[in-house]
Amino acid sequence: MITLQMMQFTAVVLMVLLTAKLLLLRQWRIKSRQARQARWLMAGGTALLALHFALQLTWGLRLIGVTQSVMLNLTMLIPASYLFARAVLLLQRRGKLTRLDRWTGPAVWVAVMAMLGVAAMTDNRQLLSDTPQLRMAEKAGAVLYMLMQGYYTWRHSSSLVAMRHALSDYYDSDTDGMLRWMQYSIIGLMLLALMVPVAIFGTGTWMLIIAFAIYFFLFYLVDSFCFYLVSPAPERMEAAEQNAAEVEEEYNSLKSKESKDSGADTAVLSPEVMSEVEAAVEAWQARGGYRQTGLLQPFAAQAIGISRYRLTAWLHQRQLKYTEWIALLRVEEAKRIMAAHPEWGNDAVAEHCGFADRTVLQRTFKKMVGMTPQNYMEDLRAKNAD
């Protein structure tokens, strides 16, 4: 049977190992200053949790009473959660945090500590006695913790949307996978805010189940975080965001001539400019310009002969992202090639159409058409036989 002490010991070992993994990351593989700062914040969070579970195990606070354990939980979990949230936000915002981002967590921790301190010293009773005032302060502290995590979840979610927009307006293939861990981590941090109060106040089987879920999420968060830091993803993300910033600068400089300020985020091209862009795009498409592998948005705009701002605005007015548009062009070309050259394999089709490899072709084709290239060819053969 799994005991509480076994769970706490497992948590100590897990947090120590995760802290060591963060500290032992090769410094030269972490390119940006923000990523290095995020690494230290994440390591601080896991180290706090290691200390927290070690104190719970050593002092046996759960055996003494729920109140004493809850006080330690709130004391340690609030700053640890803040460090995790700020580490992820630092990556997302490239270090550009607001005052609320920086101080919401510390302010909540100070408020909770003040409430617990006042409640613990009421009625001239022994420190940490289980009083109604202390239980009320602990519940209020749990609510403040959830509100803090709710704020950071909102900030994470809005930042993730902006990151995805930047990627889909820059790369010629779907790169959303490199941010999937971030999406799952945001969901996990939100669930953590809901589960932690149950874990710190609860007892019995449910507490153990939720504790296991929290351990698994923390392992996933830190492991994915480490993989992201040493992968090419941060640099690719930085390039996409830099492009988005430069497109915005182009829009601001040309706004008075080419668009009207409608209060929306997307620039609106005039009908005359739309016609010019469409003519240039059609000429480029006729030359098969979209069949170049690794075609970034700035290079496509240059080949078409228009500014990045005009291409982005033209696509947005057609309710398309650059990644989606290139994929549509390449899938239509793949359909044409498969009909004209049924003897071609997926590798040849992918190379001709500009897909990075056959895997990207198959994944994109199925997403756009609803079937694999092989199934599409089988349908073509069946129609031709009829």
Offer a concise description of the structure:
Helices cover 77% and strands 0% of the residues.
Estimated share of beta-strand residues: under 5%
Radius of gyration: 27 Å
What proportion of the residues is helical, as a percent range?
A: over 70%
Please tally the β strands and state the result. Answer: 0
Largest sheet composition: none
Mean pLDDT: 87
Task: Count every helix, treating DSSP H or I runs of 4 or more residues as helices.
Answer: 16
Q: Supply the helix-strand structural class.
A: mainly alpha
Q: Give the overall shape.
A: elongated
What does this structure look like?
The protein is an all-alpha fold. The chain is 77% helix and 0% strand. The protein has 16 helices and no strands. It has helices at 4-23, 33-59, 61-64, 66-93, 99-120, 132-168, 180-201, 205-230, 233-258, 271-286, 297-304, 308-317, 322-340, 346-353, 358-369, 373-385. Helix 2 (33-59) packs antiparallel against helix 8 (205-230). The longest helix has 37 residues, at 132-168. The N and C termini lie far apart (67 Å). The model is unreliable at 258-266 (pLDDT under 50).
